[in-house]
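Exercise 7. Predict the joint structure of the components listed below.
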Amino acid sequence: MKIHLVTGKGGVGKSAVAAALAYRCAQDGQKTLLAELGDESFYQDYLGLKPLREGQTVRSPLGFDVALWSGASCLREYALYLLKVESLYKLFFENPVSRTLIQVAPALSELAIMGKVTSGPPRNVGPKLDYDAIVVDAYATGHFLALLKAPIGMIEAVRVGPMAEQSKGILKILRDPQITNYHLVCLPEELPVQESLELDREIQALVNVKPYLWLNKLIDFPKSLKAQGPEYEKDFFLKQQRQDSTQATIEAAFKGRWSSLPFVFEADETKIVAALAKGVKR
Amino acid sequence: MSFIARDVRVVVCAGTGGVGKTTIAAALAAQAAEEGRRVLVLTIDPSQRLKTTLGLSDSGETSDLKHPRIKGSLSAAVVNSKKTFDDFVLRSARSKESAQRILNNKLYVQLSTTLSGSQEFTALERLYEAVESGNYDLVILDTPPAKHAMDFLKAPQKLGALFQDKITRWFRDPKGGDKSFLVGIFQMGTKQVIKALEKLTGSEFVRELSDFFSSIQSWQGELEERTNNVHRLLVAASTQFVLVCSYDRSKLLEAFKFAKAIRQDGYHLHSLILNRAFPEWLANRQDRTFPSDPAGQMAAKWAGYFEERRKNSSILSELQNQSVQIRELPEMKEDIRTLDGVFEIVDRLKEQT
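Solution:
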């Protein structure tokens, strides 16, 4: 049982890489779930799926399941599991006041999502998720760190009771490198590289697991490029230089725990995912 | 003619993460400042590079930028979420003690720093403040990073729900005495609901929650008024939304949905900017044939790729018919590090105006 959490700066291709990882796992014969977070699906259009609403799971033609998890849907599921009595559950969730309360109570929905994410391995809390691999297209940097901090903050705020126990269980799984893998997606450009270096440090400080980095959209430039020449060649030359220097920065910080993924010259998303899936084998 | 008309007082730059919102927000501001207006650009979580470009500090202070092309004034500030929130608490609380009580609440600390929705709240709070100050002719807001462009507009409502009368009444002792939260709930006849909450979260959590809600009672009036005022500001005709997007099919589909939703809810969509639509060398080149050396072959491959992506724009044809302005910006040769770089984007926008 593996959990793959995929994050990175906005716009670096997180969702494409997450889908590629899921596709790869499915191709390797693993029962795979690709989970996206939020209350509206991105993959529905991206992978051409049947309508996907929060709390639902649909099958992708690429051979894995896709689920959309929101704070509300995760909490509802968890509550039903814990309260057991349907009428009590209804009383709670159909009360408009408590429904709003759940929506806005600080950290509750982040915690519920992390509870769901970590419910695959045996933990004796929450309904069990039966997959060999769960790939989570998690949020971008800042919001992702908020997700990781939710159980840690909760343990600090509340030391006893089910909330504290639940948080400790979540954290144990997030800190187990045998179960949870962190994937940072990055581009060979200055800003995403800087953000990845910071994110790498923060994740290690929070969970003490070393993330793996995917340097996405690496262009295979011809070797013979010159600084002079037509406009396009000058542009390629500059890009190549920038690409080389970012690779050196990445190598220094991520020695042995990064790979590159090629720039895919396709406008069709399924083709991009299929091409990336070949690259994410490690 | 100005890209942003002179009677526009607020521009909200929306779009998913990584599309170049902040840079474009800065360019729109620079253009208006060049035309003699007093402009403020508010950014959230900018990169270190942009901070240097715009002379920004994390403390949330406003910096005034200098450039020979600026005829009016150009100011920039980072929205410091925690600070804006704390300021709001200090202003809204009845007494210093009650303000301190909430600032110390463990759940408040989580709310003001991590909760999704609080960044959006503080961004709008800061926007409103800036507009009300009367110091600016135009305020441009760069929105926080979000998975979907729509998240920004939903967030304040979500946070507003926190202060609904119904919820705070839950935690309010009707006689104003020093009764515990649970007694109050018992009186409301919702004991079972609380029991369920306790079973889910534990009594310590419920205690913190009770403390949190009873502390924010005093904000309620002010917050409700603020939420209404901010909404009025956002739907005013003098507030225009600029959506920044790329040519990725999924992003265009989202932009299309956003454009529809935005109008349904009564906001005004000014334009759609397709960023990094093509490399600069491709824009300047009429001839689409390239030599057969390795560099030429690569150029032909790029050209074909960008042509193919551009076909995705058929998704937007309906928008074009609805008089939404659509602009394309090239992928700039170099990263933008100075105000000169920002003005280069201004020039690209002008070429199409």
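Discussion. Chain B is about 55% helix and 10% strand.
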